Amino acid sequence: MNTPDFPLGIYKRIVLTPNLEFFMPEEESDLNVPLLGEVRAGFPSPAGDYMELRLDLNRELVRNPDATFYARVRGKSMIHAGLDEGDVLVIDRSLEPVSGKIAVCYVDGEFTVKRIRIEKDVCWLLPANDDFEPIRVTADNDFIVWGIVSYVIKKV
C-alpha cells in the first residue's frame, strides 16, 4: 500500500480506487517551508540572500478545505497535459465544471481524470494521450463531475 510523498500529518487517506487514491488535507498541520521569493527562469540571480519568508503549503494550495481533496494519478491517459503516474492532484469540489478544465469524474462506477468538454446534450471526457479514446457521456451514464483539478504536485 503506497503512502503519499508528502509529510505525515498534512493529509488523511480516505479511499483507494483502481484509478485514483484520495486524501483530504489536514487543516491542523503546520507545513511551512522556506520561500525564496521569485526565481528567474532566464538569467541567474543570487537568491540565497532573500530566503527569509515562509510559505504554508496548505494555505497556498487549499482554497476551500471542506471541499478539497488530494488524489494520486494512476495511468497514462493524461501525460500530454502534464499529469504523470504518481503525481498528486489537488482537487477542489467547490469549483464550477466548465469546458476545458481538467476534472476528476465518476463515470459508471469508476473515477477518472480527464479534460472536460461540455456540449448541449453530451459531455466529453478527453484524454491527453493518443493511445486512449475520448469518453462520451450522455444522460444514460451514471456520471458526476466530482471536482476540478486546481494544482498538480509532481516529482522532478
From TrEMBL:
Keywords: Autocatalytic cleavage, DNA damage, DNA repair, Hydrolase, SOS response. InterPro entries: LexA-like, LexA/Signal_pep-like_sf, LexA_repressor, Peptidase_S24_LexA, Peptidase_S24_S26A/B/C. Residues 34-149 form the Peptidase S24/S26A/S26B/S26C domain. One of its GO terms (molecular function) is hydrolase activity. Pfam families: Peptidase_S24 (PF00717). GO terms for biological process: DNA repair; regulation of DNA-templated transcription; SOS response. It comes from the Bacteria. Belongs to the peptidase S24 family. This is DNA polymerase V. It comes from Breznakibacter xylanolyticus. The lineage of its organism: Bacteria, Pseudomonadati, Bacteroidota, Bacteroidia, Marinilabiliales.
